[in-house]
């Protein structure tokens, strides 16, 4: 009788253990699958590519009266069209606030302001593939005695730069003896140059060349500095699908000749 009872108890334990193990297996099989990254673009405004710029960087992004225009503006509008979206440009925003605004999210989908792709910015936001190469330049008044970078790297010399720009970073590093005047935009920099408040301006070479040719003929470029910069469209790290679609659209525009058409309109080649 004792053996029979013991056998029954043992069988009960095995049955209970089987139920527990079976329950664990069932729970694992029915567990919710891990969430997958969204394959959809998260747009601030449905059907629109909401973009911010400072519009102080001709011929890339600038105001022609009340119209927003320039190489980058037309390029982005072509990209948006290729993606089945409408480009929605916000009113001008200060350059040094653009990357933080993209990182913050919720207000813009992208920032386009001839933003140089660099490691510091890549810590904050993602970038599209590069859409244009650039270098830095130095400009002075035609009647000045400055003829080279070395002439500017002296005590008492004032060099105007745009706040948050690679021009500011370059001048700070390479003209340590000069006084760096940090201003809101490049128009203010050239105004300071003309008024004698600055001895030189440091900024992206294509912009400098355009501004000297179109608006400041009394100034001249004295140095072209090969920095190997590349411009990209800044996008939130939380929206990788948008970056992917921008890259696909950019490739399409380069393949079908639309990119070259826009480039020739502003740069002649």
Features of this protein?
single chain; about 40% helix; three-stranded antiparallel β-sheet; disordered N terminus; nine-stranded mixed β-sheet; about 270 residues; D-Maltodextrin-Binding Protein, domain 2; alpha/beta
Account of the protein in words:
The chain is of the alpha/beta class. It has two domains: 48-133 and 230-267, 3-Layer(aba) Sandwich (D-Maltodextrin-Binding Protein, domain 2), CATH 3.40.190; 134-229, 3-Layer(aba) Sandwich (D-Maltodextrin-Binding Protein, domain 2), CATH 3.40.190. The protein has ten helices and twelve strands. The protein has helices at residues 2-30, 71-82, 98-104, 119-122, 149-152, 166-174, 186-195, 205-214, 240-256, 258-267, and strands at residues 48-52, 56-57, 61-64, 67-69, 86-89, 110-116, 126-127, 132-141, 158-162, 179-183, 200-204, 219-235. Strands 1, 5, 6, 7, 8, 9, 10, 11 and 12 form a nine-stranded mixed beta sheet that branches. Helix 6 links the parallel strand 9 and strand 10. Helix 2 crosses helix 9 and helix 2 packs antiparallel against helix 10. The chain is globular. It starts with a helix and ends with a helix. Mean pLDDT is 87; it is low at 1-38.
């Amino acid at each position: 009788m004792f053996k029979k009872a013991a056998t029954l108890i043992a069988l009960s334990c095995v049955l209970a253990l089987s139920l527990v193990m079976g329950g664990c297996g069932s729970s694992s099989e029915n567990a919710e699958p891990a969430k997958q990254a969204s394959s959809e673009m998260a747009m601030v405004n449905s059907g629109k590519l909401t973009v911010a710029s400072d519009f102080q960087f001709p011929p890339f992004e600038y105001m022609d009266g009340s119209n927003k225009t320039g190489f980058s503006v037309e390029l982005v509008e072509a990209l948006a069209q290729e993606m089945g979206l409408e480009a929605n440009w916000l009113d001008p925003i200060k350059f040094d606030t653009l990357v933080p605004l993209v990182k913050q999210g919720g207000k813009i989908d992208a920032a386009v302001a001839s933003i140089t792709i660099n490691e510091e910015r890549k810590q904050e936001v993602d970038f599209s593939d590069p859409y244009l190469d650039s270098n830095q330049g130095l400009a002075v008044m035609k009647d000045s005695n400055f003829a080279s970078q070395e002439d500017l790297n002296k005590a008492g010399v004032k060099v105007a730069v745009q706040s948050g720009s690679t021009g500011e970073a370059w001048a700070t590093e390479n003209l340590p003896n000069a006084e760096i005047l940090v201003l809101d935009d490049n128009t203010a920099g050239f105004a300071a140059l003309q008024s004698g408040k600055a001895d030189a301006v440091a900024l992206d070479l294509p912009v400098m060349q355009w501004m000297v040719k179109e608006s400041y003929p009394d100034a001249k470029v004295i140095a072209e500095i090969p920095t190997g910069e590349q411009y990209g469209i800044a996008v939130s790290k939380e929206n990788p699908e948008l970056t992917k679609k921008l890259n696909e659209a950019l490739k399409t525009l380069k393949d079908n000749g639309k990119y070259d058409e826009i480039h020739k309109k502003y740069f002649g080649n």
